Amino acid sequence: MPEGTAIYVVQQGDTVDSIAALYGVNARAIAQDNQIVYPYELAVGQALFIDLGIRQPYRSLRVTGYAYPYIHETVLADTLPYLSELAIFSYGFTIDGALVPPMLPDDWMIALALQYGTAPILTLTPLDEQGRFSNYLIHNVVQNPETVSILIGNLLETMGQKGYQGVDIDFEYILAEDRDAFTDFVRRVAEQMRENGYHTSVALAPKTSADQQGLLYEGKDYRALGEAADHVLLMTYEWGYTYGPPMAVAPLNQVRRVVEYAVTEIPAEKIDLGIPNYGYDWPLPFVRGETKATPIGNIQAVRIAIEQGVAIQFDSLAQSPFFTYRQVEQVREGDYEAVNAYVEHEVWFEDVRSLQEKFDLIREFGLGGCGYWQIMRWFAANWKLLYKNFYIDK
């Protein structure tokens, strides 16, 4: 825990005023830092960020935030002071190497980022018309050197025109047969970017060994990609995901395994730890192939606990907050009409406790940075806590 900061876990009977009196701080500051709104209700088990005024950051940290062009301008403006890089999501490309811009204008985001001294980054993704990662598209581009040259040329032209300062390569579901060709693609992009004064990062699926099986992992060569790129992002989230069973989105025990492997292949200063800025609400019972979790914000998760009158718990292994609740909903069974019935829910999300554990992991392994997927929702306590832990590497 950085000096000048406390994390307080709400007990039965606590109020914002009583907690403020306990620490000798302003109640309004606690409410503002933790986005507590009138009538200032709290959930038992809720973790609060308490700013005690002193700041002695550990060291500089590279901080990247991913955002879509439809982010609210106020949210982006509030977040940019805490970011080294703003990764705008995303540019696609065609099988012929033509660049496909985002559906909404990105110029305003680039201008605002530059105003705050944050580097705007072009995120490159191989998405198909349905918005899914296409390994067919990846294969046909990375295996064709002429197409790669065309794509790099189009990247450089767009970056020069718009004011981008780097490119982030986010390719997922790469076929094992394309592993070396993808590595060569990243190397060629990075070399051309450096020659033109830009830098290159690449997103890595969360591997725990070099020979890990699975479509997410086999196409990513940690050591070679770490050598090719200027820095990498470990996508250490989505253990709990929309169509999976209820669990922490970024359980610390699993995140640690990924970091432990990554530092054996890539210099620690090149590694950014992925951090989720969201949670999920699962209806129960979970049925694979049928159950779909709802993505929620971290502040929204606490509001649900308050509205449902349930206590927030904290899993000691995953180092993540969670809770369960039940509410009346319309349920359809088979061909029968929908009826009202009690439905159980399980919620996992992030709070200042789980985030501090991740910041401590960055310190322990000497990682160079962190990357937030994504910054579309404002979570004030996270940024306040990050600011207490590190200097932002602008």
Secondary-structure-based class equals alpha/beta
The CATH topology of the largest domain is TIM Barrel
Helix count, per DSSP?
12
Task: Give the CATH superfamily of the largest domain.
Answer: Glycosidases
Description of the molecule:
- By secondary structure, the chain is of the alpha/beta class.
- It folds into three domains: 5-51, LysM domain (Membrane-bound Lytic Murein Transglycosylase D, Chain A), CATH 3.10.350; 60-279 and 352-392, Glycosidases (TIM Barrel); 282-348, Roll (Chitinase A, domain 3), CATH 3.10.50.
- The protein has twelve helices and 17 strands.
- The chain has helices spanning 16-23, 27-33, 73-79, 107-115, 135-142, 145-162, 179-195, 222-228, 252-265, 298-308, 352-365, 380-389, and strands at residues 5-9, 47-51, 60-67, 85-93, 99-100, 119-124, 166-169, 199-204, 231-234, 271-276, 279-283, 294-296, 313-315, 320-331, 339-348, 369-373, 391-392.
- It has an eight-stranded parallel barrel, surrounded by six helices.
- Helix 6 packs parallel to helix 7 (179-195) and helix 9 (252-265) packs parallel to helix 11.
- The protein is globular and about 65 Å long.
- The protein starts with a strand and ends with a strand.
- The model has no long low-confidence stretch (mean pLDDT 96).
